[in-house]
Amino acid sequence: MAFKERVFSGVQPTGNLHLGNYLGAITKFVALQDTYDCIYCVVDLHAITVWQDPPELKRTIREVTAAFIACGIDPKKQIIFNQSQVAEHAELAWVFNCVARLGWLNRMTQFKEKAGKDRENVSVGLYAYPNLMAADILVYRATHVPVGEDQKQHLELARDIAQKFNVDFAASIASNGYGDAFFPQPEPIIQGPATRVMSLRDGSKKMSKSEPSDYSRINLTDDADTIAQKVRKAKTDPEALPSEEEGLKPRPEADNLVGIYAALNNTTKAAVLSEFGGAQFSTFKMALVDLSVAKLGPIGSEMKKLVQDPVYIDSILADGSARASAIAGETMKAVKDIVGFVRRS
Ligand code: AQP
Predict the structure, then answer these.
(1) Per-residue pLDDT, 117
(2) Where are the domains of the chain?
(3) Selecting from 1.10.10.10, 3.40.50.620, 3.20.20.150, 3.40.50.410, what CATH number does the domain 6-195+310-339 have?
(4) Could you tell me the CA-to-CA distances from 88 to 34, 46, 177, 198 in Å, in that order?
(5) Fold match between domain 6-195+310-339 and domain 214-305
């Protein structure tokens, strides 16, 4: 069956948005809006899988919304909303809790990393997170999902859930008039030189919001001086930059900085190395500071301006959630018919 092409993705309001979120996800969101109908979600239901301070959660929901707009997503053309305003995400997630298998969730590496040794004490929500993520995507029957490399395994799980639902309910899907498949197999879009931006302090760890050291990441709201300080202090090695990509392989910190430069400059690592091969890090870092400030400075300023107007931000979220609900509501009606629930007509 042919599905209408549609993009869905989300960002958690769990702290400072950083360069990893920007290069791995949000720049792709912006680029895709020229070609597709897009739905971009502030995934606040995911955020509460770990404890969030309520006033701070409200603030960060608005801040992520501001970031979407400041980075260039057009809220009139595309849908921007927060997940908790569209109840169908949680409703479909329950159905998927009953489709997904325990063994599938047991393999999720992000759960293992986040739960660590304290597994008995983490929330059930953290464990079931990938089922909710599958529901986020499939409640819009989205076909394309731009994400960072770290979300690849969750996307594969979403595809498995869609497939199992289509097989388990094949007869009902056909008799309700939906042909041979109700859900599409959503395609991950993981492309470019910075699909996994690493910590500035440790090239073996992903740049992340929850890392205690603020020097490990560049936040979208950092000012020029802070960006300069963080880049200057970024861990490197004593060698000059290589001229070929092959030379980056055993050098994770160099590889990371070159990848960041390439992504910010919309080019490839090879092109960056043809310009900076043989240069010392001091020279390269100065260029990286200039580029980062030029690209991120205007975004940070616009975000700070937008968050001063929560009434405007809330109106974007209300409008977006009304438009999202219209699509999600239709999907849930069909899912109820397919599963065999009796529903209000
Ligand atoms: N370091 C990264 N490099 C590339 N892409 C990244 N993403 C996150 N970190 C990187 C992508 O950003 C999108 C939104 O991520 P999220 O907010 O939903 O959750 P996350 O992946 O858990 O982000 P963090 O910052 O790493 O948070 P914590 O510290 O809570 O774990 C996703 O598409 C993600 O792939």
Answers:
(1) 86
(2) 6-195+310-339, 214-305
(3) 3.40.50.620
(4) 27, 14, 22, 34
(5) no
Q: Which amino acid is at 122?
A: V
Local structure of 342: helix, strand or coil: coil
The CB-side HSE value for 193 (13 A sphere, CA atoms) comes to 21
CA angle 251, 256, 257 (to 5 degrees): 105
CA of 9 to the centre of ligand 1 (A): 12
Residue whose CB lies within 8 A of the most ligand 1 atoms, among 21, 26, 29, 257, for a mutation test:
21
The second-level CATH assignment, the architecture, of 214-305 is: Orthogonal Bundle (1.10)
Is 0.85 topped by the overall pTM?
yes
Alpha carbon distance 53, 84 (integer Å): 16
Catalytic residue among 206, 230, 269, 295: 206
Task: In whole angstroms, give the CA distance from residue 29 to residue 145.
Answer: 9
User: Which residue is it, tokens 């009796």?
Assistant: 342
Buried b (16+ CB within 10 A) or exposed e, 145-169: bbbbebbeebbebbbbbbebbbeeb
- What is the distance in A from the centroid of ligand 1 to the CA of 208? 6
pLDDT < 70 positions in the chain: none
Please tell me the predicted confidence (pLDDT) of residue 2: 84
Residue with tokens 């309520």: 54
